[in-house]
Specification:
Layout lengths: L8 E2 L4 E2 L2 H12 L5 E5 L6 H9 L5 H7 L13 E5 L1 H7 L1
Antiparallel strand pairs: 1-2, 3-4
Amino acid sequence: MRRYSDTPKIKGGTLKGTSATIANIRDAISNRQIKFSEIVLQEGQRLDTLAGIEYGDSSLWWVIAAASNIGWGLQTPPGTLIRIPVLLDVQRVI
């Protein structure tokens, strides 16, 4: 098995969520190249659930985590400011 065989994919399944991709998302958020909405995480909300609602794919939780400067989605406490990027914008910059 390869190291990134289970890594979530975006952009038509051609790009993987590697550390370089995450850095690109963070830079593009900072430079306002990616549009995003913001919410404050409530008790019981999870990044995978938000990704499922926003993108129709809960495995894309890492896109929200990258945009929000979160290392691991399951460690995100209530009250955290979450950025939910527009997925089409993400696909353009990575």
